[in-house]
Here is the input.
Amino acid sequence: QDNYSEFHIMRFSQFSQWTEELLDLYLKDLETAEIDGRNLVEAKDAYMMAYTAPEQYKSIRQYLPEISDEKQECIDEIVTLQMKQQDEYVQKYPKISARGRNNYQSDSIYDTSVEVYLRGELSTYSIYTLYKYRKYLQDLENENMNLPEMIVEETARQKGFNSLTELENCLK
Here is the structure.
């Protein structure tokens, strides 16, 4: 986040894979947060602390919007779907994925995992955005498409590679 050009590439790569409808819902989430005086990046980081710094999280959780059972269930379903795709991506592109976050927090106590980052991010979405995101992941899976792979493929293109295979073959 401190390197704007890198941050831009990463976020562009993520959001360029979304449907217009999903992007519109997320924009509404951002607008609502702004009206309410909430910063979704700070909230994401705070929600991640439930996994990365549980004792500190206890002292700040009262300042965060409560996550309903319905919302938590939807987040859990999305995490299951997306982590399945993430695991498949890691198997297909081990050299590229080795340069990123660990998939699960249990794999490293020092870095925030893909799973924890995803949970933190999803916790900031409205229930409407979460439902649409879940449906989007299900649709991708039905079409044998992999969202993490699509995102990293776009990142590779943004960095001048023609494909993930080309990038994977360049790495030692």
Q: What stands out?
A: The chain is about 70% helix and 0% strand.
